[in-house]
Design brief:
Protein name: Diaminopimelate decarboxylase
CATH superfamily of the largest domain: Alanine racemase
Radius of gyration: 22 Å
Function: Specifically catalyzes the decarboxylation of meso-diaminopimelate (meso-DAP) to L-lysine.
GO biological process, one term: lysine biosynthetic process via diaminopimelate
Helix content: 25-40%
Largest sheet: 8 strands, mixed
Pfam families: Orn_Arg_deC_N, Orn_DAP_Arg_deC
Number of strands: 16
Shape: elongated
Family: Belongs to the Orn/Lys/Arg decarboxylase class-II family. LysA subfamily.
Oligomer: single chain
Structural class: alpha/beta
Distance between the termini: 15 Å
């Protein structure tokens, strides 16, 4: 929630920009760390959600690890001081160069997504005289009940090893002299709001862990991924219920004394801590449609165009005034999909009004582009 003092501060700042509430970020990180500590769970932050250096430094200082999906993310984590022993490297298409650089960084482990990848990592590790720690990412065929484009755990998805390929994985692991098997990994999707989904995941994790141990492997790590969603409709509710989330795994995941449980949370940690601030360039009132044209567009926040995602939008200049008209809130990009909301009820809006698009901390700044040769929007931080 923005105060009058905030709006005064923004008065002479050129828009668009991302505004980070560092107090809220710290509160969210502390809530997650405390809830995870109750069960001795290990949390790796998913850099793909937001790799802003100020945000990453706050996360690193809380002692979280890093979940990376490119060598760039691995290098960013190392440069900012994340411990190499807490960095995991996932991704369905790791290049040889990326694997070699991650081997040189001595990261905790690779989350491997195909039988072929096991062989490649083994060969590359051998050529460097190293032993690579690996976890097998398994596609559990669990429906996350989220948007189709952010579901990752079904047979139709490209991610992970399907169950029918696991025997070949076992043989590849037995044949590989330069791989150390540490455990199994899962990730079924993003923006999951039903805890029942995670209960179903636990059932599958239990089954696959038992299967690997029956084949003679010691499963030391149960990495259940992330995916916990946030409430985009009520951004002032702010902090996700980490206690209930972790409690599901405590109740339904079968964990042996020698096993660690790892999580890869992204959106839930950073999603609510940022907003995209923008000003109205033009108001176009018509017979069938009224348009508010902002100076921010899909180049600054891609989610509405990419996923038809909802973000709460507020006219800060008219705070407290009743809704008067319906507007399509759009950006300046030369694409019809450059639209943040349709038929949104707002106070009567004028050129120069300051708008806030909330819950932009995850998949906001990281998805920004220079399309239309747009300049990148800067970040501004709370004064706390």
């Amino acid at each position: 929630m923005f105060t009058g003092k905030d709006i005064e501060r923004f008065a002479n700042i050129e828009t668009p920009f991302y505004y980070y509430d560092l107090t809220l970020l710290q509160q969210t990180l502390s809530a997650c760390a405390s809830a995870a500590a109750m069960y001795n769970y290990h949390v790796h932050y998913a850099l793909k959600a937001n790799f802003n250096p100020v945000v990453l430094n706050a996360i690193k200082e809380k002692g979280f690890g890093a979940d990376c999906v490119s060598i760039g993310e691995v290098q960013r984590a190392v440069e900012l001081g994340f411990r190499a022993g807490k960095i995991v490297f996932a991704g369905v298409g790791k290049s040889d160069r990326e694997i070699n650089q991650a081997l040189d960084a001595d990261i905790f482990c690779f989350n491997v997504e195909s039988v072929q990848e096991l062989g490649i990592i083994n060969d590359l590790a051998a050529s460097r005289g190293k032993k690579a720690r690996v976890a097998i990412r398994i596609n559990p065929n669990v429906d996350a009940h989220t948007h189709h484009n952010i579901t990752t755990g079904l047979d139709e998805n490209k991610f992970g090893v399907n169950s029918w390929d696991l025997p070949a994985c076992v043989q590849a692991l037995k044949d590989a002299e330069n791989l150390e098997f540490v455990g199994i990994h899962f990730h079924i999707g993003s923006q999951i709001t039903s805890l029942e989904v995670f209960r179903n995941l636990c059932t599958r994790v239990n089954e696959f862990a038992a299967w690997f141990e029956d084949k003679g492997f010691v499963v030391r790590v149960l990495n259940v991924g992330g995916g916990l969603g946030i409430d985009y409709h009520n951004p002032d509710a702010q902090i996700p219920d980490f206690s209930s989330y972790f409690q599901v795994f405590n109740e339904f995941l079968e964990v042996k004394s020698y096993q660690e449980v790892h999580f890869e949370l992204g959106r839930a940690l950073v999603g609510q801590c940022a907003s995209l601030l923008s000003r109205v360039l033009y108001v176009k009132n018509g017979k069938k449609k009224n348009f508010v044209v902002l100076d921010a567009g899909m180049t600054e926040l891609m989610r509405p165009a990419l996923y038809q995602a909802y973000h709460q939008i507020e006219n800060l200049s008219k705070a407290g005034k009743a809704a008067a008209l319906r507007y399509d809130v759009v950006g300046p990009i030369c694409e019809s999909t450059d639209c943040f909301a349709k038929e949104l009820e707002l106070p009567e809006t004028a050129r120069g009004d300051l708008f806030a698009i909330r819950s932009a901390g995850a998949y906001g700044e990281v998805l920004a582009s220079g399309y239309n040769l747009r300049e990148r929007a800067p970040a501004l931080y709370s004064e706390s």
